[in-house]
Amino acid sequence: MTEQESSSVLQPKGFRDSIGTMEQSGSRKWIFPKKPKGKFTNYRTYVSWVLLAILFVVPFVKVNNGNPLFLFNVLNREFFIFGFPFYLQDFYLIAIGMVTSIVFIVLFTVVFGRIFCGWICPQTIFLEMVFRKIEYLIDGDRNKQIRLSKQKWDAEKIKKRTLKWTIFFIISFVISNMFLAYIIGIDALERLIVSGPIKHYDTFIALLIFTVLFFFVFAWFREQACTLVCPYGRLQGVLIDQKTINVAYDFVRGEGENGRSKWRNGEDRESLGKGDCIDCNQCVVVCPTGIDIRDGSQLECVNCTACIDACDEVMEKVGLPKGLIRYASEDEIKKKEKFKFTGRMYAYTAVLLLLMGLLISLLFMRSDVDAKILRQPGSNYIEQDGVISNQYQYTLINKTNKPTVLHFRMVKPSDAQVKIIGSEDKITLKPRETKQGTLVISIVSDEVNQTKEKIEIAVFDENEKMIDTFDSTFAGPLRLSF
Ligand code: SF4
Ligand code: SF4
Known about the structure:
- The chain is of the alpha+beta class and 482 residues long.
- It folds into 2 domains: 1-60 and 113-335, no CATH class; 369-475, Immunoglobulins (Immunoglobulin-like), CATH 2.60.40.10.
- The protein has 16 helices and 16 strands.
- The protein has helices spanning 3-10, 39-57, 91-112, 115-119, 122-139, 142-150, 155-184, 186-195, 201-221, 224-229, 231-239, 251-255, 282-285, 306-318, 330-335, 343-365, and strands at 62-63, 67-68, 70-73, 78-81, 84-86, 246-249, 325-328, 369-375, 382-384, 387-398, 404-412, 417-420, 426-429, 434-444, 452-461, 466-475.
- A hairpin with a 4-residue loop joins strand 3 (70-73) and strand 4.
- The longest helix has 30 residues, at 155-184.
- The model is unreliable at 1-11 (pLDDT under 50).
- It binds iron/sulfur cluster (2 copies).
- One iron/sulfur cluster binds at residues 247, 286-289, 291, 293, 301-307.
């Protein structure tokens, strides 16, 4: 079959003119995917158990002297990543970390397509491995679900819908609580639960809003989150190419010389030039996004592998080799080429390694204490008893779980005096405490020869270890010499 012929076989229905979950009128076409079963479905189930366990256990894990493993308290601007506290001052690290993650996802997508969507994405895992499984238990498989949807609202339908939606709502509520634990921490969540919703009605209302949102997504919106909302799916067109490994239909084998055709017992398909696809539609009815993988790579495909399992089962039944739908690149199918790293993949890998190196170095160089000293905006000098004084503002952050004691010392000029307003010579910071205040630096008038003297201040800890130094200016009077 020529390339032109194969592409016409692959695009017979103008499938790119519409999406699988929408009627021509624009109304929603509800998908009733057949319950998938097979090797890949089993593997994905095991992976989802592990990931769900991690997702629900992580909020309880404390490391590094009682720090949460992960916490993203946007409201209080408190972040913990792998037990290490991060502050707004460390935002550049989070930004580099995010850029690194994006490059990683890009590289991963260039090589393995949308494997993330099918195996790791929380939307797919919750929908396919939690909510959909409950739906199969209550409503039954595809045919029973179709029948139930067309059925009038009799006792059976009311009972099944009430049961299903109640369970969905409870699970959505649990998911909301779990996400809240990532924001406020498990201890704070426990306190909220113990003291009851009336006392913290504002948090409870927020929880209910998120519960309704999750319920809406998993009970109704479903695959549309992937096909209409998720930006990652839309990026596929620019990320994947003919070398990318994806869930793919082997159109060379499936279409043969004369295209796919229904199975007929005893027929010699090979001599008739028929492909191995027996047009049974099993790969279509299992698809949770309602597409036909035989039409080629599509934005809606979330790489859930259900069509691989469905087709393998069919191939086994008719005695043909499995893998008509499999993880493969277009080049592997068309040219029988094995996977190899392309120039684009090498380039992404180099950028990824550079970013990872930068991130790791910055993490190691990150200090336990953060200090900032700035001249008091709008302030002027004061001259009294032969001494000139200037005011400065300081901000000190203790990023550790231990108290620390800090003090300031002048580096240039070394004989200048530093006084902390309203405090002793030293400042004690509790674990993870931020303190701000005012410093007065005094220099003997005779030593101030310019209106803006350059000075240098250092911050030391209790072990006399220098934390940081700061350059600033010191304002003095204009001295005219004739
Ligand atoms: S085409 Fe196959 S892998 Fe893609 S979403 Fe449908 S069933 Fe899943
Ligand atoms: S399940 Fe396999 S044989 Fe059946 S229609 Fe799909 S690709 Fe063809």
